[in-house]
TrEMBL record:
Highest rank taxon of the organism: Bacteria
Organism name: Thalassoglobus polymorphus
Residue ranges with Basic and acidic residues bias: 964-984
Protein name, UniProt field: Uncharacterized protein
Chain spans, region Disordered: 897-917, 954-984
Amino acid sequence: MAKLKPWYQVVTPREDLRENRPMDASEFAVHLDHIRQKRDNVSPDYIEPARFFERTFLTGSLLDLSSQVVRRLSGVQVETSAVFNMATQFGGGKTHSLTTLWHLATCGEKAKSYKGVERILAKAQISQVPKARVAVFVGTEFDAIQGRGGDGEPVRKTPWGEIAWQLRGQEGFDLVAEHDAKGIAPGGDVLQKLLGSEPALILIDELMNYISRARKLEMRDQFFVFLQSLCEEARAHNNVVVCVSIPASEDLEMSPEDVRDFQSLKKLLDRLGKAIMMSADAEIAEIIRRRLFEWDLFDTEAKKVATAYADWAVDHAQELSGIDSDTAHELFKTCYPFHPSVLSVFERKWQSLPRFQRTRGILRLLALWVAHAYQDEHRKAMREPLITLGSAPLEDPIFRSAMFEQLGSNELEVPLTTDIAGKKDAHAVRLDREASDAIKKSNLHRKVASAIFFESNGGMSQSKAVATLPEIRAAVGTPDLNMVDVENVLEGLVGSCYYLNWDKNHYRFGLTPNLNQILVTRRGAVQGKEISERIKQDTQDLFNKGTKALDRRFFPERSNDVPNRPVLTLAVMGLDHLVGDRATEKLLETIVRECGTSGRTYKSALLFAVPDGSDAIHDATRDVLAWEAIEDDTDTRKQLDEGQERLLKKNLGRAKSDMKEAIWRTYRYLYLLGKDNKLRQIDLGQITSSQASNLVELYVNELSRTDEITSGVGANKLLKYWPPALTEWSTKGVRDAFYSSPQLPRLLDADTIKRTIADGVSHGTLGYAVKQSSGQFKLLHFDESLAESDVEIAEDVFILRAEDAQKLREPPRLDRITIRPTDVTLKPGEQASFSCSGVDQYGEACSIPTTKWTSSGGEITPDGLYKASSDNEGGLFTIKAESEGLEAIAEVRIVKPQETTGGGSGPGDDLPPSQKAIRWEGTVPPQKWMNFYTKVLSRFASSDGLRLKVSFEVPADGEQGQSKADEARSGLKELGLDDNVKLG
């Protein structure tokens, strides 16, 4: 939405309001007789005709009255009357209307130049205003005993004497002098002479006031006779008008005699004249604008504001009251710079108040309102496009005094200053100060409370003396308002204000203290011990909700308060052990490392919930206990009405909810053992009960998300976690590992490991075995269905990897045999010892029952001792070993002495015969050559007697065979070794 200009940058208040000069209510009370006399105490706004018409808005009824009067004074009798009975409420504009007629009649032709008069002439269908003789009689001004006159003027003791003097001076008074002296009303003949042939206007105001006083002087009957004769005679003339104003109905302060006379007077005037209702319900906005602002043009900026607010109102029509979608745009335009609810509340609610002066009262309040809002300090703080109910200067004593005058009592002074404004810590002001930025900036608590005050204090005895939620929304609504904020603000006000009553979305500020003030007293009586006990009780209740797999331990003080068990355990620390306290951290460390006098095995099983501050929980708990005390107090309950009973239940429920939320927010920190074997803190942030069904669930969800907790592991994960040093792993050891090692995730439920084992066995990933008394393992299940309930967690029950389980299922058998050494070089007549070993199907060493040895040359004994023939010319011979249908072959190369390139036929051949030697022959897989050096040969590397004989044979078929042989020769030369590499 485009930025809207503040109202004070679009319209300008009149000078006295801009200067913030205190104004008395009398400034808006028109005294017709004072205007006639041009007294000094009368504002120039009323005395100067041009200025008066500039500030007067011609309502429909005023335009109708004025046009008929000037038409009659011009001698036109058609569609007019000689007598007008002006009926309106006190302060409703009747005297202002009479003043309009006074200026028209006294100014005559000059009036044509005044603002609005051309409309009167157009409606009257005449060309100019006739100048007329004018007489004014105001009942509140004319003293029935002393009369008027003296100092060169005749003394007039009666209304007819005063009217005669004003119409025709001494000549006129002489006509009724005797009647005046004797207190007898003149008859028609005298009145005919008095009125003569010239236009005449007789204005009578505040008539009931005079009649009430005249009754005691026995003048009442004569006045009725005079008024009837005057009206009859005016009707006989074509250019005489009599205007009489009386209240619209019997005033509540009237005596029975007043009521009787009022009814008689009304009946008389209705019979002789024309009743005209001076109501301005639909036009009061324009009246106010003319009286308060120097502004006459509805410009572009004002239109932007009216349009923006009206569009918003149309969009939210179903949520508002008093603003109709079809007329919203015209309504906001008509009321600008006021919000419609500012003006309508007086019409809808306040006009029923006995002391409320309809137009005059509204003007007085709004004048003070505008003057206050226009001051520099206020304008700097508030840049509102419209003047709204929420902006009423209730903190201003002068404004409050004027407002209470209209209400008829100042009994609401204490509720207003306590709950809304006027005191530094008024509840609405404090709530705004503590609210979010958006609410604080707009003073929404203050605005809503002010709207409630105005809407709920018009006619306090009536059923409408409440502010409804739609009325409140309409009063404080702006195009930028988030409607949800209104409900939140109302909730805050209901929970804090002492005099605000609430029932089913109806709100009212009253005189009787509400439950909140009772609460303040009860809160002070709550003992600290009660609070501590209740906190512990509710904390345990909250933490006991959720999964039962998690063990809870509340408020531990020693390490043995938390058992050492392979079960996921949540230790909830008390409010005397807060996060960040050194004592708290020390206690946590002790619990993790110890359990009483013993070391703790299952330290990874522990989780700690540590509180962050205690003030919020203490305050919320104090509220709960106070509300419960009120609920349990039968004497207090008897004083509550039905609405307060409902509010009591709501407040107690809200207090319990606030306490629950306080506990949630306080226990936002978790501690557990990290992978580095140190305590690690986890901050869950600003948590609320909306994030999970209970606190334990929230903890589990967060820790599961980060894999600190798991609801179960698969069999393949077990293989990943398998301790390298173990071939078999006891089921108890498997389970315990998840609670003792921080490297593994914690099992939410220890029994889920049974399911893991059962699934692994059923799918052939794991074997399930027991250890017999002989120390041997017996495979019970492998690659077959195993029920979870059949898995036992014990120290003598084991799981095995699939390959190890397979070995237990199929016993080892001889799978192949090998000869060591695989090849030797001998001289004729030399010997070499061969051995034969077996390997089972699992690649493990296996014993051989018997071995049959044979050779293609030379001799070999049954024990594998081979001797080369002494006369052997040299060559390559084979040694064969046979066992259980399996055979293995080794090679023997016989060389003559001159062919040898080494220092003997084998390792250790050049050692003295008496010296023992460590010998080994075998095949080393290529992947283990480096390990063979590291693990075996490195420890002999510094010995001078170490001899190492290497032979290798690599398949080298195809075109690359020769190049590989050449590369081998090159490498041997670099090492300084024999490069006799053969390819063939």
